[in-house]
Specification:
The chain is α/β, with parallel strands linked by helices and 404 residues long. The protein contains 18 helices and twelve strands. The strands form three sheets. It has an eight-stranded parallel β-sheet. The protein has a two-stranded antiparallel ribbon with strand order 1-12. A two-stranded antiparallel sheet has the order 2-3. Helix 3 runs antiparallel to helix 18 and helix 7 packs parallel to helix 18. The radius of gyration is 22 Å and the shape is globular.
Length: 404
């Protein structure tokens, strides 16, 4: 039997090192977030149900987004051991500009509804982390105000080609005048997707007050205080439009959009042009033939056509067919740094995230977005080292495969 003794205070003192009490609730929440899923949980607790569901939800039965996330889970890494990874370099280059790691912040609508900091906060964080931020046509901040908020940022703009081409040209001219050098035109929105969660919640822009909304307000007073004491939420680049997302889409989106319109846009836009919403190899090849500088493989995060292709599956073929010249980005289902690594290994120049940083925005405003990027970058670098590669350029198809 062991002899027992009374512990000395010096021994106890080493064990009883309590954490400093954090009085700031946002800091407490973010300090407990180690994954994007943790930020998602924080977002769920801090925002009204309808707002959270807008971000978290997808179209119809949400089959597509589930398949997208499962595809990333089905990735198997093949590490190379006995490699020096002591000084990892996760940087990469897109359109002549260096990125801290292969990530682009995707365009999202209604962003000031998630948190009053809105697009400006996201753009500022992107500039600090040296990754591009893409402002949406249906964003809640104007192209001019965003450029002023992040003058040193790698600011991109996402365009919906409106039925009124004159209005599209007017908006494009404003984007050019504000110094944006990359345009991302979205082409998978012939009509708005059926997002059942939004329909059930009755979500509109501006937010409408109902009995259910008031009930939810009682449990989220700080969110409502911010909304009621700041400028009204509106589509800043499309003033005059209102309704739920499907109704706004019917007013803005053009079901008659064709490849000829992409060729026309190429003559209107003088800088780098990406086409977002590509879901087949043939369409990727066609838009590049029209002079576009790259593609974004995307099914709109599962928010448009349910049961649409899982774009991660076609990524290797698209890269092979397009060659090394055009930029290939991918979104839909990216929720971790390992997901980004998998996309790079399969041929993407970078991955895009939308929900991931919006969860951070809802959980903690600008600080939450910063925490989201900190998580993603940390996961990416660690996974890269464990894979046995020292640089982003060193990640290859040999390192990544599907388990099935």
């Amino acid at each position: 039997m062991n002899d027992r003794q009374i512990p000395k205070w010096s021994e106890l003192r080493e064990l009883l090192q309590f954490r400093r009490l954090e009085l700031d609730p946002v800091e407490r929440r973010l300090a407990r977030a180690f994954t994007i899923a943790d930020l998602r949980e924080g977002a769920r607790k801090t925002t009204p149900r309808a707002v959270f569901n807008y971000t978290d939800g997808a179209a119809e039965e949400e089959i597509t987004i589930a398949r997208c996330r499962q595809a990333f889970r089905d990735i198997e890494f093949v590490p190379s051991v006995l490699r020096d990874v002591s000084s990892p370099d996760p940087t990469t280059e897109i359109f002549g500009k260096q990125l801290a790691f292969p990530l682009v912040l995707a365009p999202t609508g209604y962003t000031r509804m998630m948190h009053n900091d809105g697009e400006k906060a996201v753009a500022r964080v992107a500039a600090r982390y040296n990754v591009p931020y893409t402002l949406s046509t249906v964003g809640t901040t104007t192209v001019e105000d965003l450029a002023e908020a992040a003058p040193d940022g790698n600011n991109w703009f996402q365009l919906y080609v409106a039925k009124d081409r004159a209005k599209t040209v007017e908006l494009v001219d404003r984007v050019i005048a504000s110094g944006y050098t990359t345009l991302m035109v979205t082409v998978d929105t012939q009509v708005g997707g059926s997002r059942v969660r939004e329909l059930r919640d009755g979500l509109t822009i501006p937010p409408a007050l109902s009995v259910g909304t008031f009930a939810d307000m009682a449990t989220h007073p700080s969110w409502w205080f911010d909304k009621l004491t700041t400028a009204p939420i509106e589509f800043a680049s499309l003033r005059g439009f209102s309704g739920n997302s499907a109704e706004v889409a019917d007013q803005i989106f053009d079901p008659g959009l064709t490849f000829e319109d992409i060729a026309w846009l190429r003559t209107v836009w003088p800088h780098k042009l990406l086409v977002k919403g590509i879901q087949s190899v043939a369409d990727a090849e066609r838009v590049v033939e029209l002079g576009c500088d790259g593609v974004v493989l995307s099914n709109h995060g599962g928010r448009q056509l349910d049961r649409s292709p899982t774009v991660l599956r076609i990524l290797p073929v698209v890269r092979e067919r397009l060659g090394s010249g055009p930029v290939v980005l991918i979104d839909s289902g990216v929720m971790s740094g390992s997901d980004i690594l998998a996309a790079v290994g399969l041929g993407a120049d970078a991955a895009m995230v939308g929900r991931a940083y919006l969860y951070g925005l809802m959980a903690g405003g600008e600080r939450g977005v910063s925490r989201a990027l900190e998580i993603l970058r940390g996961q990416y670098v660690r996974s890269m080292q464990l894979l046995g590669v020292k640089t982003t350029a060193g990640v290859s198809r040999d390192h990544v495969s599907f388990v099935d």
